[in-house]
Amino acid sequence: xxxxxxxxxxxxxxxxxxxxxxxxxxxxxxxxxxxxxxxxxxxxxxxxxxxxxxxxxxxxxxxxxxxxxxxxxxxxxxxxxxxxxxxxxxxxxxxxxxxxxxxxxxxxxxxxxxxxxxxxxxxxxxxxxxxxxxxxxxxxxxxxxxxxxxxxxxxxxxxxxxxxxxxxxxxxxxxxxxxxxxxxxxxxxxxxxxxxxxxxxxxxxxxxxxxxxxxxxxxxxxxxxxxxxxxxxxxxxxxxxxxxxxxxxxxxxxxxxxxxxxxxxxxxxxxxxxxxxxxxxxxxxxxxxxxxxxx
Length: 295
Prior knowledge:
This protein has helices at 6-16, 35-48, 77-81, 87-90, 115-126, 149-153, 165-182, 197-213, 229-236, 241-244, 249-261, 274-287, 290-294, and strands at 22-28, 53-57, 91-95, 98-102, 134-138, 156-162, 186-194, 218-226. With 295 residues, the protein is an alpha/beta fold. The chain has one domain: P-loop containing nucleotide triphosphate hydrolases (Rossmann fold, 3-Layer(aba) Sandwich), CATH 3.40.50. The longest helix is centred in the middle third of the chain and has 18 residues, at 165-182.
């Protein structure tokens, strides 16, 4: 890894709020659990709390976050790294306080970036003036390494599952794999498309008990999003449920989760700010293999 210059570190602190930055990666063990829709609506809820939010989307265009807002992705973070355009040109802004950045192509090449390309990424991030308070990562399920590098270095990894048994089984398998192969031992659980809070709590408690008893990981409850027709309708209209149906159960659930998220406790070793986060991301992406990380 290159040594990062002091002026770049200072610029990144101005950009992303130094040690106050929160980075949360959302993952899932299978498709169909509503992960991307949840991330999009949570981003809106955080923005409406006055936070500056960046959503990094690792998914291909057909299933991307931008589609949730009726927008079309034309560029990728990789275009920025390759100096084909500026970071501001790659960002979409569906509403005040919320910006979207497609990284579907870039994330697959993080481990193969040259030192010059790594430097370009840092320079691009330091070129923006508005600071971000929260970065939400909508992680793809198709990584060459088996798991998103963002999910390995972010402060929080939230596993999204629904109430059906298949999604619970796949979520458990994902947690077990990442714990074993990549030594990540803490996750939060978001139960989506659930009929009642009591059902969500029961699902969480069952999976948390099993992972704890087997020494796999420690789980915490992130929240629950109810099975709500308003959420389905707003998604079809490419609008946030918080705007389309602000009094709906789903909208209230997203507001509650956003309020809780800003108080999620950060790890003891994560006070270095965004420059440390980006350095870890690039460093880990260069070296990520299950055997190396397990050792």
